[in-house]
Design a protein that fits this description.
The structure is a single chain. It is built from 1 helix and 22 strands.
């Protein structure tokens, strides 16, 4: 019985889900597809996600060590596949796609297919059914207010020359009585905007994408060079030194907080 329960829990953790399950209709949205586990002890080697009708301006991002393939219906991307990497069976991973959401509708289902070598798991069951393999679902609704007591200070981007990604830095203060969980960010100045963390591993500098950052009640988290930061890829022309651009920070349960980020040059001035 105990072994059966452990196996069942392992399969439950394997769900492919959205880190931010709520968004406003007609808004820019960055989807973070969270893969909780491998398939029956096997590592994840590919993930395909179908893009629902009405979703446009689709821009996927490849984690380190992975490549991207797309399926198109005319000019529109209808499915995105990440492949070529290997996510250990006992590790969670995040796969990112920036998109524009339709102005109408209440829910969007993103059917997903998880591959673990020759083993396939389909996460495509829709709400309203008895779900063993639920599809990731995004609920379209009016924007939820920011978590009480959460504020952004000292927000800025470091714009780098050419096509180099820009780093976003700020201080997130939580004077509320409950933990706030930051799960993503979006800005019209970026093709994709992701949570990253720089650190030293084995004497070498490394940078990894993170799915969420906890801000404890009464606590402060600094996003600064050498630590947590925002990674802005495919920067738009609006991201020029001297400008100011909006960034929307997304929290668990759909809460959002928008702040203006000053754009500085490579020297941070």
């Amino acid at each position: 019985m105990a072994l059966a329960l452990v196996a069942l829990m392992g399969r439950a953790q394997a769900h492919v889900s959205l880190a931010e399950p709520n968004a406003a209709p007609g808004s820019r949205y960055t989807a973070h597809f969270h893969v909780g586990h491998g398939c029956d002890g096997k590592p994840t080697t590919a993930l395909t996600v179908a893009m629902p009708a009405g979703v446009s301006q689709i821009a996927p991002e490849a984690p380190d060590g992975w490549s991207i393939a797309t399926v198109r219906e005319g000019a529109r991307i209808s499915a995105v596949t990440w492949k070529g990497g290997s996510l250990p069976a006992d590790k969670a991973g995040t796969f990112t796609v920036a998109m524009m959401l339709p102005a109408n509708g209440t829910q969007l289902a993103f059917s997903a297919m998880q591959m673990c070598g020759a083993t396939q798991e389909d996460w495509n069951e829709l709400p309203g059914s008895v779900q063993k393999h639920p599809a990731p679902v995004l609920t379209l609704a009016a924007t939820v207010a920011a978590p009480p007591g959460v504020a952004v200070n000292d927000a800025w981007f470091r714009a780098l020359p050419g096509a180099l990604p820009a780093g976003g830095y700020f201080t997130l203060r939580n004077s509320g009585t409950a933990k706030a969980v930051l799960t993503g960010a979006d800005s019209p100045a970026c093709g994709a905007l992701m949570l990253h963390k720089s650190e030293t591993k084995g004497g070498l500098a490394a940078m990894d994408m993170v799915a969420s950052v906890d801000v404890p009640a009464g606590g402060t988290i600094g996003f600064a060079p050498g630590g947590y930061h925002l990674m802005c890829t495919s920067a738009k022309t609006s991201l020029q030194p001297g400008a100011s651009v909006p960034v929307t920070l997304m929290f668990q349960n759909g809460a959002k907080l928008t702040a203006n980020f000053a754009v500085r040059n490579a020297a941070g001035k």
